[in-house]
Each structure stands twice: as structure tokens, then as C-alpha cells.
Amino acid sequence: MARPASTRITSPYGRSPGYVGFHNGIDFAHVDPNNTPVFAFRAGRVSFVGVYPGWVGRGIVVVIDHGDGIV
Q: What is the Cα–Cα distance from 64 to 35, expressed in whole angstroms?
């Protein structure tokens, strides 16, 4: 899987500092004044955009439901 854009990983897959339990995803930070598009690794439905409850201070979150239990 390629990165969705020129980004940095903010939370890797697995156990990471500041995350309770096992993180079964990868979080990317994307700050781009040129508004370069970001692409998902596969088709899905955007299920949430905004400041996610409980994740205040982590910026705007985009959650994509890819189906088959992959969000």
C-alpha cells in the first residue's frame, strides 16, 4: 500500500505511545498549502469528517468505511 499523499505517519499500526490498546490502522498528517488531493487505499464511503469526539486537539479527521470491517 502506498501513502495517500506526501504525508508523515502520526500513529503507526500496532502499539504506539499515547494509544490505549492495539491500533489497527495507520494515521497520517496532511498539511498542504497547495491542496494536493489525498487518496484512500481503496474505494469506500466517507462516514465522518470533522473533530472526532474524544480526539480533540488532533485536527480534522476523515473516516472512510471501506467495507469488510475496514474503517
A: 19
The model's pLDDT over 2-42, given as tens digits with 9 standing for 90+, comes to 666 667 787 788 886 666 778 777 777 777 777 777 778 78
Cell of 58: 488532533
Q: What's CA 37's distance to the chain center, in Å?
A: 14
| Angle at CA of residue 57, ends 12 and 4, nearest 5° | 40
**With b meaning 16 or more CB within 10 Å and e meaning fewer, what string describes 29-63?**
ebeeeeeeeeeeeeeeeeeeeeeeeeeeeeeeeee
Query: Residues 5, 38: contact at Cβ < 8 Å?
Result: yes
